[in-house]
Q: What sequence folds into this?
């Protein structure tokens, strides 16, 4: 059965990506020949593979370039945050769409929050959302997210009207799940609600970001995903209850077969839930039919059913991790049975699961928790035998006696708070994450080849050293690859309306960041506030650094005290090690710098005020500040301006320097700045910068304007664009072109690339 599942998964990948992927059939075919499988079996599996390919090719949702819908019916997969409802809905064209609905008033939001939207149909005026460039190669990709959920596109809605409500089974179960969620929110203490929602109904909406980061650092995030463990406990609980009230075992099994899918709906229907429920159902049915099925075949049947019903699920990380971990345990029984020691078995289970999923984790999240081996040994039993059963118990109790549940909550809540604080503290300890870089697909292939050979060798107890080398080799290659690059790379990151430039010197010997991006935040009505504040540093800059495998920044240069240049610094300092920070003289006195200064002081990072003539030590370039020229901080014209040059290249990074500052530089550096290679245009292309004399002096081969897509300020200003065009100076803009990388090769060639 496993081979049929493999053929069907390959067929789904080929239907989405390219028919060329069908050549992977040859590999499986060769393996079947090697295993001496019967000819009819081989022929049958290949025919099934081709049939499902053509079926998927004809039925999978295709991305739509036009929006032509007037009604949407919400699924259960939506979220209300701030002034938007975002989630998936079925259009009247029968396709699934990602909808971004704008709420117009506080009363309207109150109405939407207090009802389940699943199954409700709205008449809408849909607008197409313009395509934007990715922030960078490692940023969240909306197109991939839409494809992974079987949708055809996204629409924006401002005008809508409620039409009707579906009375179908799925909507009914979604309404029950909504009621369960509201029950938890009304009966559980506030500090326990997020955990109860995650463990009982599979909703992580309320999980604070800091707590999620701590769990991720420790490699125990999976504890908050409803999985086989949860389903097993629910199954055991129900089965024992039925037996104890006198129901025959066979009848109890049939009742479980009916009840488990209902639980899957209540639990949110994530891939891990349906995997566990479907496998349990298959095993129960086989027992009732007195045809016991092998657990591997039950899992394979589950995969086949899942992929045939929703082939896009192959792109969901939950599906990939859930089935990979399950299959790795099934096919490692010899290893697992090699010891009767509980501790050793637990370690082997953890090690097997971590090894099998690490290539996917590195590919998707660019880092892997090293401490997860130890953390899972402690926290898996703790959550399995105490935290999860406690939540189930409290939920049942809250339906029978709130006074007793409140009494017990008063005992449990302080203990759980202490546990949460311990986890947060452990998650804050340094050096727990391995962050090599985002590997290529060839590295992923090598990593899995090494893992499979390692497991085979361990089971056969042969060639252990050789297989260990094969296991470690891809990890070493991933880790050292960035340090073999002889080029200098300058990346102008697309951080919206702001500045952030990252300079990587050859062989990753030095990393310099000029500004960190940030947001100008404006006052708004309270009901429009989001649950989690959007942070440029944490959500745009840090993923780029981790995707590149940058774990240390030698120098952060904060050109001046404007939020769009430095508001994200504090978030970066909390996740990436920084050796020193440079600021313009006396800019630290500005209120906007307060949080950054506190974080710098907390971490005891050396802070230096820099001015004209000061330098940054480098083995590869002469890096010198040419502004500010005095110690009085007055704003944009006191931006730190950095000159970077060697025999092949000269670049100028100007912060928000305006007309007066540029005139001073033209007067003082008229010989040094003639015909430079690269210019970061000042003040996002505002008409107060990039004066004619400055551009005529520098005449850069390439200019970069760091300005957001369709920004409210109209940057770059048409006058600046006209000046650049009249002087025939080529330029790129981060908002429209995406993150821009300028590569200076070892031979001095200059290469410019965009996503």
A:
């Amino acid at each position: 059965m496993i081979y049929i599942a493999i053929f069907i998964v390959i067929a789904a990948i080929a239907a989405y990506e390219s028919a060329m992927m069908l050549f992977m059939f040859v590999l499986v075919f060769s393996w079947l020949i090697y295993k001496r499988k019967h000819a009819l079996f081989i022929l049958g599996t290949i025919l099934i593979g081709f049939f499902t390919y053509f079926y998927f090719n004809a039925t999978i949702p295709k991305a739509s370039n036009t929006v032509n819908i007037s009604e949407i019916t919400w699924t259960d997969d939506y979220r209300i945050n701030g002034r938007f409802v975002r989630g998936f809905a079925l259009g009247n064209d029968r396709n699934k769409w990602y909808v971004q609905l704008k709420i117009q008033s506080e009363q309207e939001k109150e109405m939407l929050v207090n009802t389940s939207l699943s199954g409700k149909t709205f008449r809408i005026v849909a607008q197409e959302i313009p395509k934007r460039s990715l922030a960078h190669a490692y940023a969240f990709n909306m197109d991939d997210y839409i494809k992974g959920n079987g949708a055809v596109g996204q629409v924006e809605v401002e005008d809508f009207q409620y039409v009707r409500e579906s009375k179908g089974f799925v909507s009914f179960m979604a309404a029950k799940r909504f009621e369960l969620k509201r029950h938890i929110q009304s009966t559980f203490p506030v500090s326990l609600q997020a955990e109860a929602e995650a463990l009982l109904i599979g909703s992580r909406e309320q999980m604070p970001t800091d707590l999620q980061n701590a769990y991720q650092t420790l490699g125990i995030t999976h504890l908050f995903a409803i999985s086989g463990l949860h389903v097993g406990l629910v199954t055991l609980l129900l089965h024992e209850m039925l037996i104890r009230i006198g129901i025959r075992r066979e009848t109890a099994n049939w009742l479980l077969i009916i009840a488990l899918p209902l639980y899957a709906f209540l639990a949110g229907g994530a891939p891990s839930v349906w995997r566990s429920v479907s496998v349990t159902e298959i095993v129960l049915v086989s027992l009732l039919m007195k045809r016991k099925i092998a657990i591997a075949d039950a899992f394979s049947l589950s995969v086949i059913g899942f992929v045939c019903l929703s082939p896009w699920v192959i792109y969901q990380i939950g599906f990939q991790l859930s089935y990979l971990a399950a299959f790795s345990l099934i096919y490692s029984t010899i290893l697992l049975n090699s010891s009767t020691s509980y501790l050793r078995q637990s370690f082997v289970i953890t090690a097997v699961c971590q090894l099998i999923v690490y290539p996917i984790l590195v590919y998707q999240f660019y880092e892997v928790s090293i401490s997860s081996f130890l953390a899972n040994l402690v926290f898996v039993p703790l959550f399995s035998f105490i935290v999860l059963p406690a939540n189930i118990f409290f939920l049942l109790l809250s339906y029978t006696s709130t006074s007793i549940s409140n009494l017990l909550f008063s005992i449990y809540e302080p203990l759980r708070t202490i546990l949460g604080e311990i986890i947060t503290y452990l998650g804050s300890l340094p050096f727990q994450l391995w962050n090599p870089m985002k590997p290529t697909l060839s590295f992923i292939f090598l990593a899995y080849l090494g893992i499979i050979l390692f497991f085979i060798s361990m089971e056969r107890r042969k060639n252990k050293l050789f297989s260990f080398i094969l296991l470690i080799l891809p990890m070493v290659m991933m880790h050292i690859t960035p340090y073999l690059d002889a080029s200098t790379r300058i990346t102008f990151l697309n951080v919206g309306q702001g500045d952030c430039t990252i300079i990587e010197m050859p062989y990753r010997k030095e990393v310099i960041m000029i500004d960190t991006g940030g947001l100008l935040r404006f006052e708004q009505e309270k009901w429009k506030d989001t649950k989690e504040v959007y942070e440029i540093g944490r959500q745009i800059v840090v993923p780029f650094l981790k995707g590149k495998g940058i774990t240390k920044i030698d120098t952060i240069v904060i050109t001046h005290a404007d939020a769009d240049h430095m508001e994200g610094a504090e978030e970066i300092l909390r996740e990436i090690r920084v050796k020193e920070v440079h600021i313009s003289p006396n800019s630290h006195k500005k209120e906007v710098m307060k949080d950054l200064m506190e974080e710098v002081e907390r971490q005891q990072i050396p802070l230096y005020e820099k001015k004209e003539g000061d330098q940054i030590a480098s083995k590869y370039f002469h890096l010198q500040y040419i502004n500010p020229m005095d110690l009085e901080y007055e704003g944009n014209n006191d931006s730190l301006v950095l000159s970077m040059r060697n025999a092949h290249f000269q670049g100028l990074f100007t912060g928000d320097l305006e007309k007066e500052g540029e005139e001073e530089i033209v007067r003082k550096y008229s010989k040094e700045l003639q015909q430079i290679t690269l210019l970061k245009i000042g003040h996002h292309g505002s008409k107060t910068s990039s004066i004619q004399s400055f551009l005529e002096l520098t005449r850069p081969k390439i200019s970069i304007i760091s300005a957001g897509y369709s920004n409210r300020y109209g940057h770059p200003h048409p006058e600046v664009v006209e000046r650049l065009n009249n002087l025939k100076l080529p330029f790129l803009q981060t908002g429209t072109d995406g993150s821009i990388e300028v590569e200076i090769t070892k031979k001095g060639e200059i290469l410019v690339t965009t996503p």
